[in-house]
Amino acid sequence: MYYYVRNHQFKGRPYHLALYAAGHRPKADKAEIALVDRDRYIQAPNTTLAYVQDFIKQGATIMIYPHSALPPWWYDGLIKAQPYIRCVCVIGEGHKDAMRVIAPEVHVEAVGWPWCPQKTFAIPHDLQTILFAPIHPGGGKLRPEGVQANKDIFHELKRVQSQTGCKVIIRYVGDLDTQGLHPYHRFEWIEARADGKTKEIDAADVVIAEGTMMYLSVARGKPTIGINQHLPCRANKSSEKYTPHNWDKYGPDLAYPINYGDAQLQDLIDRAMTEEQTAWRKQHIGETLDRKAFADKVIKIHRGNRK
Prior knowledge:
Blueprint: E1 2-5, H1 13-21, E2 25-26, E3 33-36, H2 50-58, E4 61-64, E5 85-90, H3 93-102, E6 108-110, E7 129-132, H4 144-164, E8 167-172, E9 188-191, H5 199-203, E10 206-209, H6 211-219, E11 224-226, H7 247-254, H8 265-272, H9 278-284, H10 291-306
Parallel strand pairs: 1-2, 1-3, 3-4, 4-5, 5-6, 7-8, 7-10, 8-9, 10-11
Helix pairs in contact: 1-10, 3-7
C-alpha cells in the first residue's frame, strides 16, 4: 500500500519507519493513506492546507500524528476537527482522555512513545549539570508568559549556580532576545535545532523544559522540572482568542507535577532528583511505539474508511 507521512521537524519519521517496515511504500502522488501533523493553521481555521486537499482529492485516508508531544489542543474551539480526519494519533492514554474533551467526535488512538529509546529513572549522585531549554519562539514570536518564565528561570539559575557551583547549560532554539534571554558568561550556551536529539539531556543531572523537550527528558529517565504547566497552551499571540476553550477540564491532568514557580528552584531541583513522576509518565508517555501494531492499526482504519 502507498502512503505519505509529512515529516514535521523529526516527528513524522517514526511513523514512516513503522509503515515502511510493514512493507508499505511512500509515494505521495498515489498515497492511499496520508499522515500529517496538522490539517489547518490556527490563523487560517477555515482553510484546509493545500497538500491535505490534494490527498483528499486522491481519496486518501487522512490521519493526524502528534505535531508536538501534546495532544492537538487547537481542536478545542480554535479549529474545527473536520470529517475527513479518520483518526488522531496521540502518545499516551492521558492524551486520549484529553481528546474526549477537546474533540469528542474524533476517533483517537494512543499509539505509544515514538521519538527516542526510553530509559528508567536514575537518581544522580549529586548536582553537577543543569540543562535549561527555554521556551522557544515560533514564527519569530513568543507568547508573553513564555518570555517571562524564561527570564525568571534564567535569573534563578544564576543564584543556584553561585550556591552549588554546578554547570548550567542553556540549549536554546531561535533568537535569544525574542525569548527574553541575553548572553551570560558563566553559563554554557548551545544553539540547537528542534531535532529531537537527547545528547544534552543525557549529560545533565536535571532538565528544565516544557513541551516536547520536557517529554524527551522524562522518557530518558532524567529528573525534570516543567515550565508553565499551570497555564493553558496557546499560540505565540497575545490575543486570548488563541487560547483553548476548555483547558480547565483536561489541562491539569496533562500538567507535569513538578512545575517551575510552585516553589524555590533549588527545592524543585531537590524534589526532581529524588522523586520519579511514575503515574504521570505512565499516562502521558507510556509504552514505546510498537511499529507493527501501529502499522496494523493504520491499515485497519484505512480499510474501515474505504468501506
